[in-house]
Amino acid sequence: MRIIDIINKKVENQKLSKEEIDFFINGYVGGEITDYQASALLMAIRLNGLSDEETAYLTNAMMYSGEVLDWSFLGKTIVDKHSTGGVGDKVSIALCPILAALGLTVAKMSGRGLGHTGGTLDKLESIEGYNFLLNDQEFKDIVKEHNIAIVGQNTKLVPADKKIYALRDVTGTVQSIPLIASSIMSKKLATGSNCILLDVKCGNGAFMKDIEQAKKLGKLMIEIGKQLGRKIAVEITNMEQPLGKTIGNKIEVLEAMETLKGNGPKDFTEIIYSSGSTLLMLANRAKDEEEARKMIKEVIGSGEALAKFKEWIKAQGGKVELLEQPNWFNPKYKYEIISQNEGYLKIKSAIDFGLVAMKLGAGRAKKEDGIDYEAGIYLNKASNEYVKKGDVLFTLYSSKPINTELEKELIEAIEFSEQKHDIKEVFAKLF
Q: Does 80 lie in the same domain as 209?
């Protein structure tokens, strides 16, 4: 078998066999296939696509290019939730302890943020002492004892994805739905989860801008799951506006905690209930959405969800007691943006809010950039709230002096009207 023959076959829009795809992945990870050969095949895939079957073969080959976690010793259903990334997306921090408190087992690997999207790891790392660098045995022990752990991505898992993603980034092959789907699914399946919810963010603050394309990606990932024996559900959720009222690291952890107390913002709370109910049904813990939502409401109302959050953070070394202190989030500088207009607010561009948060220090422009855990934005007013002239719209926070020119960027990202806007939190659910 030769890589040149496989490239030519895909250039001619022919289907590749499992053996040919395995040959490509094994050869590329092993160094026998060069970057320029892999680039040629990836471009042929971007131009001619892959069938569902080929995409499943590619996902499988990538998944087994490194270690695969095995949770069979627990004898339990392992659930996981993955978001394609957005602005103010602190869903995992609130949702995972709710699921664990309801008896589901959550074993999750998360990544850092880059650009305008925040990373779950950065938010958790803002909690002093939180250790996401667990070895496999420590990860398994905490999951076994507490039903929940969130750790950093293991470099031994899916090395093929790391190599291919870096190549796609510089060869114009990022925008390929089969390559996007295999990248996401190979990482999720390698963590050993049986039931996976994929939250595909859609809108100007997400990498999927179009609902139909998001649905196409969602359906493909469900099909991959079926072919590889896993239960997958997809929710396509709104990322036209930031999620919740906070963007940052410490400030988002606090909002997640408030949500676990039953005091979360309406849009964020709805995503928690929607995602939680989908996973409870997928794992056969609830017969329908009504029952699932009731279960979530009860576990929040009883305080069990917040207690599980604290138990989990403490189990991974986090100093939970500091979170209860009023000066835990204590930025040195703040800047209030005052409204010069009146009417119902609409945030037109989530990405602009994410970029301003990044410039304040809450995110990274480059991978090697540091994070200011105190930096962020509080939305004193969110979309569909009525604003009067002189009201505080948004408050900017940072450990460093704030560039007041950032105000212009946020003002350009909003508009006012005499009537409320029709805003959906969840565009579609796919099973």
A: yes
> Has 302 been annotated as catalytic?
no
Total of domains in the chain? 3
Give the end-to-end CA distance of the chain in Å, rounded to a whole number. 38
* Residue 259: how many other CB atoms lie within 10 Å: 25
Residue 168 designated active-site: yes
pTM of the predicted protein model: 0.91
Do 230 and 375 share a structural domain?
no
Q: Provide the domain limits for residue 372.
A: 333-417
CATH value at residue 28: 1.20.970.10
User: Is residue 187 flagged as an active site residue?
Assistant: yes
Catalytic-labelled residue, pool 46, 90, 123, 187? 187
Task: Give pLDDT tens digits for 123-160.
Answer: 999 999 999 999 889 999 999 999 999 998 788 899 99
Question: How far apart (Å, rounded) are the C-alpha atoms in residues 262 and 258?
Answer: 6
CA distance 428 to 416: 27
Which residue in 59, 60, 48 sits closest to 15, CA to CA?
Answer: 48
Most confident of 110-119, 401-410, 421-430: 401-410
